[in-house]
Amino acid sequence: MIKVLLTCLLIVIAVIDARTYRIPDYLSLAVAILGLFSFRGQDAIIGAVAVSGLILVLALRKGNSSIGGGDIKLIAALGFVLGFWGVMWSVTIALIAFLVVYALFYRKPEKAYALAPYLAFGSIIVIWRQQ
Q1: Cβ proximity of 120 and 11 under 8 Å
Q2: What is the torsion angle, in degrees rounded to the nearest 10, for the CA atoms of residue 76, residue 80, residue 81 and residue 83?
C-alpha cells in the first residue's frame, strides 16, 4: 500500500515539476511522512542527510547551480524513505536517464530543467525492487 501511495505521490511531483519547475515543500514533506511507515532507523537518517547533503554542498560551492532547493529537499525525503543505498541508486538512475534524454532531445542548453521526473523514475524503480 505504501509503495502505491509513494508511486502516485512521485508521479504528481514529477508532473508539477515538469510544468512549473518547482516542487512544493509540502509534497516533499509528504514523501518523508510516508517514510515513517517503513522507517529504516539509522539507514533512513543517513540516507536523508548524506546524499542530499553532498548535493547541497556541491550546489552551494558552484553558486549558480542547476539543481534547485526543491530537488535537494526531495532527495532528502527519498533518502529517508529508501535509505542510503536506495537513494544512491535512485539518484544514479535519475541522472543517467536525464543524461540520455538530454543527449537525445535537447539541442541547446536551457536555464532550468525539471529533475523531479527523473528522480521519480529512478525512485519508482528502486521502490518496486525493494522488498
Answers
A1: yes
A2: 100
